[in-house]
Amino acid sequence: MKPALKLIRDEVGLVSPETRIVRLCGWSEQEGGRRPLVSWPDESGDARVARVVAGVDGAALARGVAAGAEVLVTCTRDGTLVITALLAPAERTLEESASSTVEVNGRVISLTAEKELVLRCGEVTLRLTSDGRLFLRGEEVELRARGTNRIRGGTVEIN
After folding, report:
1. Pick among 1.20.1070, 3.40.1260, 2.40.50, 2.60.40: CATH of 3-86
2. pTM higher than 0.85 for the full model?
3. Mean pLDDT for each 10-residue chunk of the chain (159 residues)?
4. Contact of 88 with 95, CB cutoff 8 Å
């Protein structure tokens, strides 16, 4: 084992030589931008800067820092700490987790949200709410139909 890895492993008390569950505890402002800080629950509170793999969602990571969430960290051979996954709270059930999943089966993409689903692209926003409302906002909105284009509602207002 390389001395750097042994030093990091011994210093932070990794159970395996490379991976451990730790807690997000803040941000480090560096010349390359913000990086998350992680701490080990059984230590005096010393925080270490960690890198993040591309698959970890930045917004979810920011919420995790605010909540002190747990993450899976891998220690590389040179001693770099890399966040590989953001863990759901231990008390969260599988049913609660399922409400934010994306399901793809080749022909259909099904997105499910408990309260609100928002899609954004540039200046366009499509928002669906759990109370049955749909909001579409864009610079220009174009509707086309090969057949009849129907507008139905209790009341229809134009302009």
Report:
1. 2.40.50
2. no
3. 56 60 87 83 76 82 85 85 84 56 61 87 92 92 88 85
4. no
